[in-house]
Structures are given as C-alpha cells and as structure tokens.
C-alpha cells in the first residue's frame, strides 16, 4: 500500500503539487488523470523518487521513502517496477538483455536461472521468440510489452506506468491495459498508472484520482465516475460525445 | 546557468562517477565495449591522419630549411619534436574530441531524452557511475597507446615523405631523430594525453547527461561538448606545458 500525505512539490516559484493526499491499495489498478499541466507526471515522478518532495510524505507499506538509509533505498528500488511512456528500453541491448538487466544487476542468479525467469516474463506478456530482437525492430505495442516484462522481472510490489497506451492503436492499448490489470491482480501489486486514455479509465480504473491545478479534485471508481456531479471531472472525462452517450446510457440503465 | 554553476555541477557529477560499480562483471563488460567504441574504432582515423600529417610536417620543414649552413638532420629533429610534443598528443586529442566527444554526448543525451537514464535511476542504479566511469577508464587507459601509435606513424610518415620526394635522405632524417633525444618529452606527451583523455570522456558526458529537451537539444549539446572539450584541451595544453617544460 502506498500512502501519500499532503505532498507538495514546486520548481522555482511555480508550485506544481499543492498538497495531495491519497492511498493506493495492493491488487488494485489506480489511475491518475487530469489535464496536461495538472501535475500528473510530477506526482508520478515524486512517487518513484525521481523528484524529492518539498513537504509531505510518501510511505510504502509504512516505510517513508525520504527516511530510507542507502541500503533501504536500494531495497525499495528493487521493489519498484516502472513502465515509461516511450518504453525507455536500452537501444543497444536485445529484448532478452533488456529484461535480464535488473536480474544481472541485483541478483546472484546463474545465467540459466536468469534466462528461465526472462523467458517466463516474456511469455507472460505474450512475447515469445523475440529474445534476440533489438528494440528498434519491435512495434510500439511490443516495446511496451517488453517494458512491462522488464518492470515485473524482479517481482515488484509496486508498479508504475506513465501513459502506457500513448501512441498505440485502440486494440493494442486494450491488450496492454488488460495485461497490466491481470498482472496487478495476479501478483497483488500496487499499480499506479498515469493516463490520458479514457478507455483505460473505463476499462481498468478501480481507483481513479483526478488532479486539477496540482490538487486532488476527485477520487473514486469508474462506476462512481459515471455518477459524479463534479463539474471538472464531468467536463474532462465526458468531453467527447461518445463518452457523454456512454454515461447517459449507464445512468439510464442504473436508475 | 552561469559558468560557475556549470563547473560546480561538473565536479558534483564527477563525485557520482567515481564510486564503486554495483556489479564488477557488468562494469567489465561495459569497459570492453567502451574500449571498442571509443578506442579501437578511432584507430583508423588516428593512423591515417598521423601518417599524412607526419609527412607534411617533414616536407614543410625540409622546404623551409634550404640553407646550406643548416644540417639536413635538423628536418628529422624538428619533425620528431613537433610530432611528439604537439601533434600526437594535442592535435590527435582535438580530433578525438570531435569524433568521440560528439558520440558520447549524443549517446548519453539520447538516453536522457528517451528516459533510459530515468529507468536506470528508478532501478536504483547510479546512472552516472554506470554510464560514464567505463568511458573514463577506457579513454584514460587506451588513448596513451593510441597517441604513441600516432607518434610512431607520424615519424614514419615523415621519413617516407622525405625518401619518396628526394628532399632529404633517410639517413639524415634518422640521425635527426636520434639527436638530443629526451625521454621526458615522451612522458610529458603522455601526461598531456591522460589529462586530455579525461576531458574527452567527462566533458561530453556532462553535456549529454544534463541535456533537456528533444533531439534538437541533443544535437546542440553535441556541438557544445565538442567546442568546450576543444577549448579545455587548448587551455590545459598551455598550462601543462608551462608547468612541465618551463
């Protein structure tokens, strides 16, 4: 479980995060949504320790990350899996080397053991027989799947994804969404996804955090999102006619 | 950002670079890869340029020393001094700053803008140590061999140019090479090479690591890194010469 309390972060005179408090639960897929500039990326980067907050705390199963010793921080890092927007795969390494990299760095496993684990996770993300390919030889969807495989190869307790569907066609985006949700459920990972994709919100949003101007504007499930009267949420999520109609149909059905 | 801030940030970067690598095996693999990328792949250009510039230095010296009162062995002596003292360590380093410096900045800069460095940091890996230390060790250990090869080929190029052109004899040239030979000058050249190799690895790494923006910013950073590495090589060349030879 990740508990965030009154998180604040700014750059120079600009305050980007203005006191966010929320909780992300294990085995649940939590989504962060909001307009561009709302502070989603800064929030996600603060969660994974790439930004140091000015005040407030982030605790991982009761452990506050800013209080970690070097050893504790190293241990905590190994409990984190991160899927970056562009995949962030190492260009010069093959798929197998990319996925094996954290194992090589942090475990004392033999080559055979590491290869077995790599093949297992590649199989889990439906990427068999791609071990020797370079990232440049893969499609966008395949790159995202390799990134997911690399993120879960160390059995993380916390999985973070930054715009996992950006640049993907709707069908591939759904595959990625379902894959993340299955992995979250299967391994009881605390998963936090930063997204703009409303399909993802409707499909896998068990807990949705809506940010506006660096503050938490609204929080709830996708079902609750259909019923909310919050103007900012309604204006953002149901800005397209398709989603307006979906919402109307849902409300008609449930009333 | 002003120059003082850049200098401070550069030294803070060095503090992170010179830490014990997390895994010796991974570090060794990276080191051999960097020796190949930064050293072996530069062999061709250094051999080619050294050979021909050595020839030109000998020819120019011969053409400008046409007095009957000046011994012809002075051509070999002047070519030797020029090549060992300046051409091989300084000119070759400037050439390497262009070739290797732009490669280092663009490769690290691309990793920055495509979030590969963030990925390393999130995994708990000291990205500066992981990316830059193998480059520094590779250049500092390999470039002295490269520069010595440059010296040998430059001097050989000078001999061949003289023999083929008929401007001076091989015997005179070799006599010039042997006269007033001071081993310290080789040491001086190698000390300069070590300092320049360090700059060639670290200054472009700094520009690449802290790049902000997209591909255009990476291109600009590459240009900046070559310019600053060259400037620093020229300044250090002057300071080292003053310290070691005067």
Structure description:
Chain A has 10 helices and 10 strands. Chain A is α/β, with parallel strands linked by helices. Chain A has one domain (2-221): Rossmann fold (3-Layer(aba) Sandwich). In chain A, strands 6-7-8-3-9-10 form a 6-stranded mixed sheet. A 4-stranded antiparallel sheet of chain A has the order 2-1-4-5, with helices on one face. In chain A, helix 3 (95-106) crosses helix 4, helix 4 crosses helix 5 (140-152) and helix 6 (170-187) packs parallel to helix 7. The longest helix of chain A has 18 residues, at 170-187. The two termini of chain A are 34 Å apart. The model of chain A has no long low-confidence stretch (mean pLDDT 89). Chain B is mainly alpha-helical. Chain B has one domain. Chain B has helices spanning 3-17, 24-39, 43-64, 73-113, 116-123, 127-165, 170-178, 183-209, 215-245. In chain B, helix 6 crosses helix 8 (183-209). Chain B is elongated, with a radius of gyration of 21 Å. Chain B starts with a helix and ends with a helix. The mean pLDDT of chain B is 94.
Keywords:
heterodimer; A: 255 residues; alpha/beta; Rossmann fold; four-stranded antiparallel sheet; 10 helices; 42% helix; B: 246 residues; mainly alpha
Topology:
The complex is a heterodimer of chains A (255) and B (246).
Chain A: E1 2-11, E2 14-24, E3 29-34, H1 40-47, E4 55-60, E5 63-64, H2 70-78, E6 80-83, H3 95-106, H4 111-124, H5 140-152, E7 158-162, H6 170-187, E8 190-194, H7 198-204, E9 207-212, E10 215-220, H8 222-227, H9 231-237, H10 241-254
Helix pairs in contact in A: 3-4, 3-5, 4-5, 5-6, 6-7
Chain B: H1 3-17, H2 24-39, H3 43-64, H4 73-113, H5 116-123, H6 127-165, H7 170-178, H8 183-209, H9 215-245
Helix pairs in contact in B: 1-6, 2-6, 3-4, 3-6, 4-6, 4-7, 4-8, 4-9, 6-8, 8-9
């Amino acid at each position: 479980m990740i508990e965030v309390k009154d998180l604040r972060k700014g750059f120079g005179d600009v305050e980007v995060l203005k006191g966010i408090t929320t909780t992300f639960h294990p085995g649940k897929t939590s989504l962060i949504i909001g307009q561009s500039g709302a502070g989603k990326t800064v929030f996600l980067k603060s969660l994974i320790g790439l930004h140091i907050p000015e005040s407030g705390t982030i605790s991982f199963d009761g452990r506050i990350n800013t209080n970690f010793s070097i050893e504790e921080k190293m241990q905590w890092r190994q409990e984190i899996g991160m899927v970056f927007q562009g995949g962030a795969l190492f260009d010069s390494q093959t798929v197998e080397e990319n996925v094996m990299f954290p194992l090589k760095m942090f475990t004392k496993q033999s080559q055979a053991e590491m290869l077995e684990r790599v093949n297992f996770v590649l199989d889990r993300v439906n990427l068999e027989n791609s071990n020797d390919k370079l990232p440049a030889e893969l499609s966008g969807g395949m790159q995202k799947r390799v990134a997911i495989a690399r993120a879960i190869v160390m059995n993380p307790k916390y999985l973070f994804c930054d715009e996992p569907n950006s640049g993907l066609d709707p069908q591939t985006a759904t595959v990625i969404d379902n894959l993340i949700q299955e992995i979250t459920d299967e391994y009881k990972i605390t998963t936090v996804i930063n997204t703009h994709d409303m399909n993802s919100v409707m499909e896998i949003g068990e807990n949705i955090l809506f940010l506006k101007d660096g503050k938490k504007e609204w929080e709830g499930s996708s079902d609750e999102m259909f019923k909310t009267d919050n103007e900012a949420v309604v204006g953002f999520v149901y800005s397209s006619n398709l989603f307006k109609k979906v919402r109307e149909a849902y409300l008609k059905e449930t009333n | 950002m002003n120059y003082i801030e850049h200098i401070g940030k550069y030294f803070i970067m060095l503090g992170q670079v010179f830490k014990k690598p997390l895994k010796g095996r991974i570090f060794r693999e990276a080191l051999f890869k960097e020796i190949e990328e930064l050293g072996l792949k530069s062999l061709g250009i250094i051999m080619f340029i050294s050979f021909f510039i050595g020839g030109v230095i000998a020819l120019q010296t011969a053409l400008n020393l046409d007095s009957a009162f000046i011994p012809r062995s002075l051509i070999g002596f002047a070519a030797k001094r020029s090549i060992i003292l300046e051409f091989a360590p300084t000119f070759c380093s400037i050439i390497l700053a262009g070739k290797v410096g732009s490669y280092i900045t663009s490769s690290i800069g691309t990793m920055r803008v495509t979030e590969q460095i963030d990925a390393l940091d999130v995994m708990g890996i000291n990205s500066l140590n992981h990316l830059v230390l193998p480059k520094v060790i590779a250049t500092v250990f390999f470039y002295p061999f490269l520069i010595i090869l440059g010296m040998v080929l430059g001097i050989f190029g000078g001999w061949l140019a003289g023999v083929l052109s008929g401007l001076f004899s091989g015997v005179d040239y070799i006599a010039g090479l042997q006269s007033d030979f001071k081993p310290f000058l080789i040491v001086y050249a190698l000390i300069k090479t070590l300092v320049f190799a360090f700059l060639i690895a670290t200054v472009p790494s700094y520009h690449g690591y802290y790049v902000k923006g997209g591909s255009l910013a990476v291109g600009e950073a590459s240009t900046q890194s070559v310019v600053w590495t060259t400037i620093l090589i020229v300044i250090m060349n002057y300071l080292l010469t003053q310290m070691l030879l005067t």
